[in-house]
């Protein structure tokens, strides 16, 4: 019996062009312009590419020549047809399938931001309970969707789970590579004629270890192994070689999880809140059930597991809310009822809501009222492993395709708001105009043309939001002609300082969100300070602005809510912000160099001016929950939200 080794997760690779020769040039099938090599592994390669017909980024995944034969090609297509039917926010989408000039099967996949869970565990060792529960719920949602369609993964592991931060929705995880292990199984048996254990040894179910048929309960076991590793920093079974690990899966019970978590860092564990420790113990009990040797003794379906995961998350969130809100309300009722800042920021921990309509719960009701970003957006790297899933006889979508007929397009309209997006292409102008209703418009991933931007500027919109939608400076100048837009959100739109300057005549703006625009510098802060007298809410997080450039933010006078997430700020960069006369809430999440000196600066300011501040300082390792509690006690004018446990998780 052959024992497979765990396939290492391919990391980003800058070699790119060296691998293009096998595809007879940089263009595949006269359609996909290869941009760079993303990953190279023993089973094949993954490339970042541009779909020139739809004008969108995609990932092309090729199976290595060693695994290609008539049998595996047919299996590849069969698996592709089945998995292309999977349409879930937590599964990497498959768009198409083809055969390259050199005979290699390939699939066209969603190009998603993120890093594999394998990468994060390799970098950080372990994750916290909140992050682990989010990943657990997301993967359960994906697998419920797949299992309902009789599709089994067979190789769930950290390398096949991609993790990202999605706008203010928070942490998100997606499953990769459905059906790949069975394709590789077929190819190896064809080549060697011998039996094979399919899967990755550290995450292998006992029945897979015995060479038996895997069903949906094997996926439950494998997921539990991955979640176990998230908290313990190691899998349930470790040994010197793969054979010994597989034997342990087949014969031994998993060691209790909680003692392992305590032993990693006893001091850090002692600092956890009571709610976090309770959640770890509850999840440990759930995982112990998932890791039973007999499939009949495990959860019998992913939905049962999902319900228990959600219960633990809900209980943990309630505990966090009690710890945070038991002090006092920071703002007066008129502040909380302000119509300019009630935008409903989704919590990091979602409520118990159906997966298709996620509840926009609030981490803290004060946070929602202020419109503070709870979490940042994803890093830009994308890592994929190999695996099948294409679309049979897919129609080619052109630039003139009616937006409402595009298979991945989502158009939601009601009397007050329209949301268009999620297909990362272009839209017919007339169809676009017909779709827009109400005074709020959100556009996601669509490349707007000049006519569409002019139409937006002419409509009586109060709120206009674009995300992952590139807008040119000339288009910004047209948009700036709007006299009605008060809330302008331009996240990950590649706007630069000139683009912000073009907005200067929109003096009516009360909210401006420029999150994720890396071309911005401190120059844009000068424009903002001088030209938006009504602005109360500003987000420049995850941008190119440097900490020392915050000195240029001298206004606007009424600026109350400021988001400066992940700008690599140091304690000394905070001082200029204390001069903003109306500032009451600031989000400093993911500025990992900040220390308790920042809390001291804000605390001293409360004593000198009587100002009260709400500070979100999550994922700043030097500021733990206990440190935050000390400063809240020392300075009653501070209300601090930080990670409920020492965070080691940074995308």
Describe, in plain words, how this protein is organized in 3D.
The two termini are 39 Å apart. The protein is built from 20 helices and 20 strands. Mean pLDDT is 76; it is low at 1-25, 181-198, 324-409 and 644-651. Helix content is 33%, strand content 15%. The strands form three sheets. The protein has an eleven-stranded mixed sheet with strand order 10-11-12-13-14-15-16-17-18-19-20. A six-stranded antiparallel sheet has the order 1-2-3-4-6-5, with helices on one face. It is an alpha/beta fold and 651 residues long. The longest helix has 24 residues, at 302-325. Among the domains are: 16-110, Phosphorylase Kinase, domain 1; 116-325, Transferase(Phosphotransferase), domain 1, CATH 1.10.510. The chain has helices spanning 70-83, 117-124, 129-147, 180-192, 206-209, 216-232, 242-251, 257-264, 266-271, 274-290, 302-325, 333-336, 365-370, 429-435, 450-458, 473-479, 497-502, 523-531, 596-609, 625-634, and strands at 27-28, 32-41, 44-51, 56-63, 94-99, 105-110, 115-116, 161-166, 170-175, 410-413, 417-421, 440-444, 463-467, 487-491, 511-513, 537-539, 561-563, 585-587, 613-616, 638-641. Strand 18, helix 19 and strand 19 form a beta-alpha-beta unit.
């Amino acid at each position: 019996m052959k024992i497979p080794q765990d396939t290492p997760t391919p990391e980003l690779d800058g070699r790119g062009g060296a691998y293009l020769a096998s595809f007879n040039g940089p263009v595949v099938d006269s359609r996909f312009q290869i941009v760079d090599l993303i990953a190279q592994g023993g089973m094949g390669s993954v490339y970042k590419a541009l779909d020139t017909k739809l004008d969108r980024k995609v990932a092309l995944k090729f199976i290595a020549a060693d695994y290609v034969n008539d049998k595996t090609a047919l299996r590849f297509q069969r698996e592709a047809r089945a998995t292309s039917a999977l349409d879930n926010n937590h599964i990497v989408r498959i768009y198409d399938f083809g055969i390259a000039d050199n005979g290699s099967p390939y699939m066209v996949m969603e190009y998603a931001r993120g890093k594999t869970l394998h990468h994060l565990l390799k970098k950080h060792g372990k994750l916290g309970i909140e992050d682990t529960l989010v990943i657990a719920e997301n993967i359960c949602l994906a697998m419920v969707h797949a299992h309902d369609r009789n599709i089994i993964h067979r190789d769930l592991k950290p390398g096949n789970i991609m993790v990202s931060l999605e706008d203010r929705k928070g942490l998100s995880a997606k499953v990769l590579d459905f059906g790949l292990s069975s394709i590789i199984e077929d190819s190896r048996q064809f080549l060697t004629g011998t039996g094979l254990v399919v899967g990755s040894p550290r995450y292998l179910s006992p029945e897979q270890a015995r060479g038996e048929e895997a069903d949906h309960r094997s996926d439950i076991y494998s997921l539990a192994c991955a979640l176990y590793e998230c908290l313990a920093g190691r899998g349930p079974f470790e040994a010197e070689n793969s054979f010994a690990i597989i034997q342990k899966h087949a014969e031994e019970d998993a060691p209790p999880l909680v003692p392992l978590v305590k032993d990693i860092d006893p001091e850090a564990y002692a600092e956890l809140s009571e709610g976090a420790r309770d959640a770890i113990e509850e999840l440990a009990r759930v995982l112990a059930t998932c890791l039973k040797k007999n499939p009949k003794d495990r959860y019998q379906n992913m939905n049962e597991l999902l319900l228990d995961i959600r219960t633990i998350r809900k209980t943990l969130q309630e505990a966090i809310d009690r710890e945070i809100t038991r002090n006092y309300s920071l703002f007066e009722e008129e502040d909380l009822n302000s119509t300019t800042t009630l935008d409903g920021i989704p919590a990091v921990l979602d409520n118990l809501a159906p997966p298709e309509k996620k509840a926009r719960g609030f981490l803290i009701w004060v946070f929602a009222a202020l419109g503070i970003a709870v979490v940042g957006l994803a890093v830009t790297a994308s890592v994929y492993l190999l695996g099948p899933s294409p679309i049979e006889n897919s129609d080619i979508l052109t630039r003139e395709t009616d937006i409402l007929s595009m298979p991945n397009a989502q158009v939601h309209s009601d009397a007050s708001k329209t949301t268009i997006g999620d297909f990362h292409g272009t839209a017919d102008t007339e169809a676009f105009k017909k779709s827009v209703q109400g005074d709020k418009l959100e556009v996601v991933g669509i490349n707007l043309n000049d006519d569409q931007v002019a139409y937006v500027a002419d409509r009586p919109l109060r709120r206009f939001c674009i995300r992952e939608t590139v807008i040119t400076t000339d288009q910004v100048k047209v948009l700036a002609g709007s006299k009605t837009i008060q809330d302008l959100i331009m996240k990950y739109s590649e706007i630069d300082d000139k683009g912000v300057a073009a907005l200067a005549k929109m003096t009516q703006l009360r909210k401006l969100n420029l999150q994720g625009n890396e071309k911005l510098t401190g120059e844009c802060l000068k424009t903002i300070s001088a030209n938006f007298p009504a602005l109360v809410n500003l987000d420049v997080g995850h941008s190119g602005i440097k900490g020392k450039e915050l000195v240029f933010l001298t206004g606007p006078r009424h600026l109350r809510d400021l988001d400066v997430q992940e700008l690599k700020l140091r304690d000394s960069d905070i001082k200029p912000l204390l001069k903003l006369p109306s500032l009451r809430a600031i989000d400093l999440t993911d500025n990992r160099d900040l220390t308790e000196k920042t809390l001291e600066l804000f605390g001293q300011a409360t004593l000198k001016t009587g100002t009260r501040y709400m500070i979100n300082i999550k994922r700043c390792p030097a500021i733990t929950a206990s440190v935050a509690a000390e400063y809240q006690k020392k300075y009653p004018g501070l209300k601090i939200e930080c990670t409920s446990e020492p965070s080691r998780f940074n995308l």
